[in-house]
Amino acid sequence: xxxxxxxxxCLPAEExxxxxxxxxxxxxxxxxxxxxxxxxxFSELPLDHSEIKTLxxxxxxxxxxxxxxxxxxxxxxxxxxxxxxxxEVDRIFISPGPxxxxxxxxxxxxxxxxxxxxxxxxxxxxLNAFSYHMVAAGLTFHGGLRNVGATIIPSGTSSSQLQVQxxxxxxxxxYTGTPSFLMSIITKAEEMGYNFKNDFKMxxxxxxxxxxxxxxxxxxxxxxxxDTYQMYxxxxxxxxxxxxxxxxxxxxxxxxxxxxxxxxxxxxxxPGMLGEVVVTRFxxxxxxxxxxxxxxxxxxASPCPCGRTSFRLDGIAGxxxxxxxxxxxxxxxxxxxxxxEKFDSAKFQFIVSRTSHEDILTVRLEPKEAATxxxxxxxxxxxxFKDVCTVRIDRLEILRPSALRDDDKMIVDQREWx
Length: 418
Ligand SMILES: [Zn+2]
Known about the structure:
This protein has 418 residues and is an alpha/beta fold.
């Protein structure tokens, strides 16, 4: 059995799903009783709230995007009518939009699963470099760290020089914040004459709010001996997923229902396919069902060697608006960059066109040097592309050197929707 935060992380899949349905039904019943907005949403649907009995039924509820949430809150401040008006709220967070979020409870597990999986706990002294001002970040990460028994320094967004002083004076063992800020703290420490690895005790870092570039991760781990972990969430729904020591995908938190959906229909896509991350946080205060994060990802359904049984998110591939859809499957710029890395600086152009109501994907590939064995290059490319993007290439053109210009667009969508 894995070193889990609690037994829920190792539940059999069927048991987890049974609990999720119970929690959704309970939340829908409470929302229907207590929230005017939920009653209005159901009045516009061809189904009664009592008819939601499975996760497939739940898909019939509309996805609420951040833009939609702002619209609801503007028309009905402060929470768009999505809250229980009798509930005691200990604090209200504000995020750009503005979006107002009632903090759910002092006793929740927010972020604690992530810190536990990263090996942070009693005895650790953690620098929390997330902002404590207005937004949810600082205080909710703080709560998660307290939950696992760590001591926190609420340094927030203080200057990097002050952070270096705190790391030295208070024998800090771990950091939580963005990866870029940790790098600037390390750079400052070096400017001040310190050897970060030898002079300080920082051995763990948990990042959120910004992607962790593989090259930066490698630098933190090999040059500075800092074991790094990624965490993922959204201020509207709290923590969503976290990395375990395997570092291959992010486990989904037990307090949320996560769906990967086709943004056009709001219906789930198959495991392995890219779609929008849609999250519902089980609670009885703020009835934000099916929050559409706008992030693109896919699920990893295979078991994780760490022993946790939840599905994992395969990182974030990008934003829904930046991706192009071919035969119903998304291709995101981040996937194309991954392919570019593999094929060592080759240049590409991906053209999506449409013939007889069928999408056609044409790839124009310009190898770094004139290809001698084009058949083998073509085969390798097609295979790797299918592995990464799950979409089949219809036409592949191998180009001569300098055929593509540096300012040519990587994705060209020629389809016209008439
Ligand atoms: Zn794992």
